[in-house]
Amino acid sequence: MILLTKLVVGAVGTIVTLGAMVCSEGFVSVRVQEKHPGGTHISIFAPALLLNGGLRCVPSEHLRDAGEQIRPWMPTIEAAMQQMGKMPDLTLVGVTDPSEHVQVSKLGGSIVVDVDDENETVHVSAPLRAMDDAVQQIAAAGPKL
Amino acid sequence: MMRISMKVGVVLCLLAGAIAVGTIVSRRAFAAPPEKYLHVRVNNSENKETVNVNLPLSLAEKILPTIHQGNLKDGKVTIGDAEMDNVDLRAILDAVRTAPDNEFVTVKSDTEDVRVAKSKGNLVVHVNETKKDGEKNPEKVDVTIPMSVVNALVPTDKREIDLVAAIHALADAGDTLLVTVHNATEEVRIWVDSNGSST
After folding, report:
1. Residue B42: pLDDT above 90?
2. Do residue B197 and residue A90 have CB atoms under 8 angstroms apart?
3. If contacts are CB pairs under 8 Å, which of residues 73-102 in chain A contact chain B?
4. In this structure, what DSSP letter does residue A72 have?
């Protein structure tokens, strides 16, 4: 009985630790809702760590071009990510016209993009840390210097 | 014994009070200045479009030195001799800085009126397009740049425009309306303040 209790406690502890690790990078949220009748509705809410893990599984040859192009801009991207992490929440860009509304904001450690036009509503939210990791991985996939 | 305990208690209370007051004073003294934002707002009445951009100056200050493209390096734009056409920009700015408030350039033509002046510590440029037949709202441009920003833009004895120093000066200059452009269809406004939203 004591052994069983120890096993249960061990299993619960492992699950909680793994869960905490997976959630530590925050969550990526993507929602797309087409407005026409019967339109598609996509909703993804996934731990950023899993998405970055998925990026590691992409063969590097598929990321080589992107990596080569992004590498010269890495100091700029790193500086921007670092500084944005320190900034208070704010709307960086907002564009409104009669048919469309686009907003890019920094909200609680994440970059949030909202698009609302005549055809669809799109919401994307990604943690800055996860974006930084993803960009680092893509840059590392570029040709070796 | 009781009296000693009371004395120790009083001393401890005074010490705690002094530490608390010291902490508050030092926090106020070393508090970071409020973040400054560069706002750009474009209203187009023709297509009913509004664009708002809010850029924290600290973000621009950190990013600019990392960009190395063309003439831009380390947050500075190098101006070649050919582009300057033998004009000593520094000398001109020094002359403007030391001059009293005055109008430096006034041009009146059939198409527009231009005025460049120094006024209350600012370099001011006004361009008013002359109203043509049938035109409702001719274009009007007003630019106001604090002299501290103009001075920071051009470092001494160098053919460079120091954008980072200018942004730093802009952050120190207080709330400023930098540019307004009005014409028949569009209204542009660029300003700096401590408000994170462009309202």
Report:
1. yes
2. yes
3. 75-76, 78-80, 82-84, 86-98
4. G
Q: Give the per-residue pLDDT at B178.
A: 94
Q: Is the model's pLDDT at B22 over the cut of 80?
A: no
This complex has an ipTM of 0.77
A97 and B48 Cβ atoms separated by less than 8 Å: yes
Is B82 a residue whose pLDDT tops 60?
Answer: no
Q: Mapping DSSP to helix (H, G, I), strand (E, B) and coil, where does residue B52 land? A: strand
Contact check, Cβ <8 Å, B59/A93: no
| Cβ–Cβ below 8 Å for A83 and B47 | no
Q: Which tokens is B88 given?
A: 């000593």
Mean pLDDT, chain A cut into blocks of 10 residues (145 residues total) = 84 83 81 93 89 82 89 92 91 94 94 95 93 90 75
pLDDT in tens, B131-166: 777 667 789 999 999 998 988 887 766 678 889 999
Answer for the pair A50, A22: CB distance below 8 angstroms, yes or no: yes
Compute, in degrees rounded to 10, the torsion defined by CA atoms A46, A47, A49, A51: 10
Nearest Cα to A109, choosing from A128, A136, A82? A128
Tokens of A75: 């100091």
A88–B35 C-beta distance less than 8 A = yes
d(CA B176, CA B192): 5
Is pLDDT above 60 for B27? no
Asked if B37 reaches chain A (Cβ–Cβ under 8 Å), the answer is yes
Over the Cα atoms of chain A, what is R_g? 20
Is-contact B143 B119, C-beta < 8 A? no
Task: Return d(Cα A113, Cα A30) in angstroms, integer.
Answer: 10
Tell me which of A82, A90, A91 to substitute to probe the interface with B (most B C-beta atoms closer than 10 Å): A90
Residue B135 backbone phi and psi in degrees, to 5: -85, 130
Helix, strand and coil in chain B, % to nearest 5: 35, 35, 30
Distance (Å, whole) CA A65 – CA A143? 8
